[in-house]
Design goal:
176 residues; alpha+beta; Protein Transport Mog1p, Chain A; 7-stranded antiparallel sheet; two-stranded antiparallel sheet; 5 helices
Amino acid sequence: MATRETTRRRPAAVLGVLAVVVAGWLVAGAGATVAPGPSPEAEMVCSAEAETDITGVLGVSLVSRPAATWAAPVYTCTYALSAGPMVLSVRELGDAAETSTYFDAAQRAATEPVSLPGLGEAAFSESTGNVLVRKDFKILLVDVTGLPEFFGQPRLARVAIGIQVGRIIMACWIGE
């Protein structure tokens, strides 16, 4: 049974915990909050629906279930394919300006970027076949560098695989 003294301390303890949490958010960055986990949209890259759609487009089976990790602010899903890994990652950013800045810097740093109109809010591929897509406050990276130059049934170039997978994920994100 709680005494009057311990009852008075509980609100103070709760306020102390709240102060620590708020301070942690402020230290994380101006206007940014530390997410406790990935958004539902980010998790879609590793969903059963995405897995089915991706393996269907590639005409292959997975060696094992996709493996997901969360290291804020990036959610990563690795697809184990017979020829090597394909890695999908979603970087979750705080606002439109931060997202545009990150995407624009990535595009400037890319090797031979090719704009991909109609994919997300902006997208490009690079000579490696990797595809980056910007949508809302998220950046999707489809990393196909672990695959051979041509892969799947029918055989597709890595860049075609990156574009197809980008389209699949965008369709999931917008509910198609």
